[in-house]
């Protein structure tokens, strides 16, 4: 059984780290103030403001910040400032046994995807494909905050993951499967293929989303995931949005899904609001879900946090 971190409550302390690309200090401070206004305490990692070009600091320094948050008894949640690039470089420097013994909520998306999935695969820790620090701002849609806190701060179950009312989920291949949910950003997952940190989809429900990639690149990503057996191994597939993804060769994102994924015959749902989209559903990585593409529902079957 996967390890569930203790739930988040007002008054708890959130540890902020920058595990990938740097973020402007003024933005970090403004978003941290939003957390304080919500009733949380905030602690910064030593290298949260660092800047070394593409990444904020060395892989060892960024990993040290993450590990310090896991071992600090004050911290209830670890919140990356952003994704960007380079998160996968910290993976060899983490102590996964220590992480398993000190479970904390950790949330994010984009390049943080590979960290979330590896903490589940290696430390057996439930993680959260949900908000980053940059999303804690006054104009963030209430849907996003509701999703985040309903998943990290309550033990209600089962719980349906529902899109905003004006953004219906759609199912393209009928079926009904149950299993742990894994996945996230396609770029992050494809970049890890062929490494010790590639995603394991065997007996899992796989969800994917992407941003700022033309559809010829999406074609490559989906093909690489297929050739590496990730679609063949999984129980079902959920496709999120491809935000700001230009059409290439007259072929749209939806057409790629129809051409490449529908023929696999796996239960297939599309249009999930998550990741880089304006609306962001909270997906607890490693929890058991029911994907029912006959009645078009996605249900988390167990709490993602412990009381």
TrEMBL record:
The record ties this protein, via CDD domains, to: Peptidase_S66 (cd07025)
Q: Where is the active site?
A: 110, 209, 276
Q: Where is the signal peptide?
A: none
Q: Tell me the InterPro entries matching this sequence.
A: Carboxypeptidase_A_C_sf, Class_I_gatase-like, LdcA_N, Peptidase_S66_N, Peptidase_S66C, S66_fam
Q: GO: which molecular function terms?
A: carboxypeptidase activity; serine-type peptidase activity
Gene3D superfamilies per the record? Answer: Class I glutamine amidotransferase-like, LD-carboxypeptidase A C-terminal domain-like
Q: Pfam families from the entry?
A: Peptidase_S66, Peptidase_S66C
Residues of the LD-carboxypeptidase N-terminal domain: 14-129
List UniProt keywords, sorted A-Z: Carboxypeptidase, Hydrolase, Protease, Serine protease
Whether Protease counts among this entry's keywords is: yes
Q: Name one GO biological process term.
A: proteolysis
Enumerate the spans annotated as LD-carboxypeptidase C-terminal domain.
178-291
Classification via PANTHER family: MURAMOYLTETRAPEPTIDE CARBOXYPEPTIDASE, MUREIN TETRAPEPTIDE CARBOXYPEPTIDASE
Record family assignment: Belongs to the peptidase S66 family.
Q: What is this protein called?
A: LD-carboxypeptidase
Q: Which organism is it from?
A: Peribacillus glennii
Q: What is the lineage of its organism?
A: Bacteria, Bacillati, Bacillota, Bacilli, Bacillales
């Amino acid at each position: 059984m996967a390890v569930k971190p203790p739930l988040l409550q007002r008054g708890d302390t959130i540890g902020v780290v920058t595990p990938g690309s740097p973020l402007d200090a003024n933005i970090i401070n403004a978003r941290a103030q939003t957390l304080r206004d919500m009733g949380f305490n905030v602690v910064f990692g030593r290298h949260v403001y660092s800047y070394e070009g593409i990444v904020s600091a060395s892989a060892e320094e960024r990993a040290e910040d993450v590990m310090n948050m896991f071992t600090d008894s004050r911290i209830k949640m670890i919140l990356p400032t952003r994704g960007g690039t380079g998160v996968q470089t910290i993976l060899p420097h983490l102590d996964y046994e220590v992480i398993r013994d000190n479970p904390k909520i950790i949330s994010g998306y984009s390049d943080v995807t590979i960290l979330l999935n590896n903490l589940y695969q290696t430390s057996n820790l439930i993680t959260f494909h949900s908000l980053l620090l940059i999303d804690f701002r006054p104009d963030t849609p209430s849907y996003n905050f509701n999703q985040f806190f309903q998943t990290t701060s309550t033990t209600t179950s089962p719980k349906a993951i529902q899109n905003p009312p004006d953004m219906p989920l759609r199912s393209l291949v009928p079926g009904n499967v149950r299993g742990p949910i894994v996945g996230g950003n396609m770029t992050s997952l494809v970049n890890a293929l062929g490494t010790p940190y590639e995603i394991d989809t065997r007996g899992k429900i796989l969800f994917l989303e992407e941003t700022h990639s033309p559809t010829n690149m999406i074609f490559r990503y989906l093909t690489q995931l297929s050739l590496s057996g990730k679609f063949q191994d999984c129980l079902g597939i959920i496709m999120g949005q491809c935000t700001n993804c230009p059409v290439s060769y007259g072929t749209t994102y939806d057409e790629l899904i129809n051409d490449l994924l529908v023929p696999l015959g796996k239960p297939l749902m599309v249009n999930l609001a998550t990741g880089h989209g304006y609306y962001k559903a909270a997906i607890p990585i490693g929890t058991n879900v029911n994907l029912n593409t006959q009645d078009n529902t996605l249900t988390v079957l167990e709490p993602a946090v412990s009381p």
